[in-house]
Amino acid sequence: MRLEKRNLRNEMLLKRKKIKKDLREKKSQQIFKNLVNLDEVNAAKRIMVYVDFQEEVQTRQFIEYLWSKNIDVVIPVCKPKNRQLNPSLLYSFDELEPGTFGVLEPKKEAIRYVDLDTIDIIIVPGLAFDRHGGRIGYGAGYYDRFFERTPNAQVIGIAYDEQLVMKIPMEDHDKRIPLIITDKEFIQAKYFL
To answer: Is 113 annotated as belonging to a binding site?
Structure first.
């Protein structure tokens, strides 16, 4: 199964990379519109969201929207030693610098860790999703471990429509995503229905 996952990862990285920049921006804009129309998002007090990296769905406009609504923005800080994500409040993009894997994280002096139980929603990236809530990320399991530590938070995956596949190979430790939002649709994972 590991080989199958690695092959799917490589295939999806290439597929995502082939989406032209202007089209990625347009698709990200539609995903943003879909997200901000969710009642759960507007009712939340604290949302964890990644800062987009490379060709991922862009999140900066969403982060600015959350700030404008006085919703706390929390971003993941990678801890490679134990392969964990620790959430930290973010007040400004000026607080960011490249961290683990080149992903933007708060500068050391701007890290403000939060209690995991205070996170209402987690917006999660992925290389691919399926309609049963299957998700494949970059392969280190950071988010799967994080979901175990945040059982009360609602998890929403965001992806370009091109990132939907028929079936993600799932292992016992892989966590399913109940709601996936693309530029074309809202997907309530069949696994949870």
So the answer is: no
Does residue 142 have a known ligand-binding role?
A: yes
Is 189 known as a binding-site position? no
157 is in an annotated binding site: no
| Residues 106-154: tens digit of each pLDDT | 999 999 999 999 999 999 999 999 999 999 998 788 999 999 999 999 9
Q: Annotated binding residue at 50?
A: no
Which residue range is the domain that position 71 belongs to? 2-192
The verdict on whether residue 5 carries a ligand-binding annotation is yes
Is 6 annotated as contributing to ligand binding? Answer: yes
CA 81 to mean position of chain CA atoms: 21
Specify the number of domains making up the chain.
1
Asked if residue 74 lies in contact with residue 114, where contact means CB atoms within 8 angstroms, the answer is yes
Residue that is written with structure tokens 């990678």 in the block: 78
Query: pLDDT tens digits for 21-73?
Result: 999 999 999 999 999 999 999 999 999 999 999 999 999 999 999 999 999 99
CA distance 153 to 59: 19
pLDDT at position 193, please? 55
Cα(177)–Cα(149) distance, integer angstroms = 15
* CATH code, 100: 3.40.50.10420
Q: Is 99 annotated as a binding residue?
A: no
Q: Give 193 or 139, the one with higher predicted confidence.
A: 139
Tell me if 131 is assigned to a ligand binding site: no
